[in-house]
């Protein structure tokens, strides 16, 4: 066998040994693949077991397993808490309640009543958006449905167009009832769109109970037809999702269940949130899953590290998201695992 092919097998062997898989099962899987003989497979696995590199890696893997065990303790304790399996709805939480009970404790919550004074709640519709910003050029993601890794490859899907034309596309999809994930304006487009849509910020007010008082132009504008999807991922900050138009389904998995969500690169999971394949990803069934639907006027707090999948439901959706909380939220500086895991 070519050296390059055997090196691929050797990396696979070492990874599976460090994951704790039995040596005999590893060699059997290699032989069953047909590329190597049973003897070659056994010899390579035995060699790996004797390698000081693998032995050193095993010590590190053992430390990581200890940390994973610690996280499972948090998970079990969380499930014991009353309402631990639901995302609570709270009307106009006070600042102290929000930070003490949810932000500091890394717990999600839906806050209601905070957007009542937003003119956007009554003004924003297709005609109004076209009238106010129709001639502005905006950035949108297209071709998402043809790429299974559309979110990871988001920069490759960016296109420029008039906001009027984009609103037309969204309105048509909503009227036809044809859900699509093929085009979506997301936070990944914010650097271009924040200035292009600046006149819309007159219609939203700072959520100053929780965010810094100069937050109007610090939000991220999301707009899409029914059927938009954001795959399972976690953010590197705490986040607010303030829903203005339409409804979204949100599926969430706590930070402490990260070991079960098949994180394969950066902050993304391999699991399809719309139809999880439990045969391919059996550990996902061990993860605690919390679901909610948010609609106009709802503000969903997504704690840092919580895995979430988001899907636009039965109409066009517009969402504002925020990260500029009054308390520390700069967890990005010491994050280094952007590569494949």
Structure report:
There is one protein chain. The protein is of the alpha+beta class and 341 residues long. It folds into two domains: 3-74; 87-322, Sandwich (Jelly Rolls). The chain is built from nine helices and 15 strands. It has a six-stranded mixed β-sheet with strand order 1-2-13-8-15-6. Strands 7-14-9-12 form a four-stranded antiparallel β-sheet, with no helix packed on it. It has a three-stranded antiparallel β-sheet with strand order 4-3-5. Helix 2 (23-33) packs antiparallel against helix 3 (38-50) and helix 7 (126-133) runs antiparallel to helix 8. It is globular. The chain starts with a helix and ends in a 19-residue tail after the last strand. InterPro entries: Cupin_8, JmjC_dom. This is Cupin-like domain-containing protein.
- DSSP, total strands: 15
Overall spatial form: globular
Q: What Rg, in angstroms, do the CA atoms define?
A: 23 Å
Give the termini separation.
Answer: 27 Å
Beta-strand percentage range: 15-25%
Specify the CATH architecture of the largest domain: Sandwich
CATH superfamily of the largest domain: Cupin
Q: Helix-strand pattern, N to C?
A: HHHHEHEHHEEHEHEEEEEEEEEE
**pLDDT < 50 runs, ≥5 residues:** none
Write down the overall mean pLDDT.
Answer: 94
- SS element count, helices: 9
| Widest sheet: strand ordering | 1-2-13-8-15-6
